[in-house]
Write the structure tokens for this entry.
Amino acid sequence: MTTPTTDHTTTTAYAAWPTQVRLPGQTAAHEGPADMTMMYVMHHAFRRDLAAFAAAAAATPVEARSTWRALAERWETFAHALHHHHTGEDTGLWPLLEERTDDAGRETLAAMEAEHGEIDPILTACGAGFERLASHADEDARAALAVRLVAARESLGRHLRHEECDAIALIQQLLTNEEWHALDEEHFKKGLSIQRLLTLVPWALHQVPAPIRRDLFAQPGGRAHHAMWLATRRPFERRERLAFRYVG
């Protein structure tokens, strides 16, 4: 009996799908045509950072002014990256998916935007706390910041789990890999200056396993990112050691 053409086509499509990465803390990795590696790398960086910031706020003495200044500068890198990422989702990704999905999908996407709105004021309060401690030895400010960072970690953690379980499933159902990459270029990469990229590349790839880094560098445009990483990773690591020096 001849295998139906549709089955053959589907089997071929599955075989051509990219292998989805799994990084520490990641909740799910839905199969599908879109290569979500960079999305998962960003999620890894957000989880990694909030865990590190929460630990640093609890452990760093209020008198360690240079360390608090380093932490405040490092927070700016994290906060800018997260804001840019969420803006790309809110202005580009969610509206495109809303056009193509059903009522259940639109409910998921509305939740994504609402969760962004829940996270933003917590992050703003954390940023103010780091700025305060960069210039004043304020034990009350440190205690308040530690509480807010735990809240930020928990709130963002819930959002990332929801996104990985439900919203990324919609991406795989509704977008081709070509559409995903076009959207990535237009809404996530566009507008980033060279100076900002030189900050973000070592930040995003920090603690990412070497095989995944090599795969990213092998993608179109990856050679430029590899060059940036080679030029910036050691200065980045020195700044990391200063900012998180009291974290065990």
In short: Confidence is low (pLDDT under 50) at residues 1-12. The radius of gyration is 20 Å. The longest helix spans residues 65-100.
